[in-house]
Amino acid sequence: MRLLRHVFARSARHLFPEDRLRRIADAIATGELRHRGEIMFAVESELPAGMVLRGVQARQRAEAAFARLRTWDTEANNGVLIYLLLADHRLEIVADRGLNGLVSAEQWRGVCLLMEERLRAGEPEQAVIRGIEAVSDLLAGHFPQVDGTADQDELPNLPLILD
């Protein structure tokens, strides 16, 4: 059954055309004005059949995307990847080591639950924007902007569709 979901998955570009991607990028940029963390969003329609047959799960794929996209490549080790695998209806959040011990697994799960609610309602753009806002709230609590200190945007804000 899982293999069929991946073989016949709808394209991420259908749910996230360019105008939605731009609005999500704007939400990331706005959120990053409140903190010194870095947020990335990536969506993948499906996994290749071989990966599905080998049992590769969304979490593994999210961790691989985190590394491939260099989300870890920030000065304070505070990058966060929000990853959506459409075929499995799975959201994963991967955070860099600078957030270890600061944000709990339950808090990350709470962000996913907010997003899942909007996804079930057929509002993918709002789901991602709500997730970005929630992650920004968490980052602002631990890595707030410091007045008078320039904050460099270290990672791209434009969401990525992984093909």
The count of helical stretches stands at 7
DSSP strand count: 4
Output the helix-strand order: HHHEHHEEHHE
User: What's the number of domains?
Assistant: 1
Average of pLDDT: 96
**Largest sheet, described in full?**
4 strands, mixed
Q: Any guess at the CATH architecture?
A: Roll
Strand content: 5-15%
Structure overview:
With 163 residues, the protein is an alpha/beta fold. It has one domain: Roll (Diaminopimelate Epimerase, Chain A, domain 1). It is built from seven helices and four strands; from the N terminus they run H-H-H-E-H-H-E-E-H-H-E. The chain has helices at residues 2-7, 12-15, 18-32, 49-53, 58-68, 105-120, 124-142, and strands spanning 38-44, 79-85, 90-95, 160-162. The chain has a four-stranded mixed sheet, sandwiched between helices. A hairpin with a 4-residue loop joins strand 2 (79-85) and strand 3. Helix 3 (18-32) packs parallel to helix 7 and helix 6 (105-120) packs antiparallel against helix 7 (124-142). The mean pLDDT is 96.
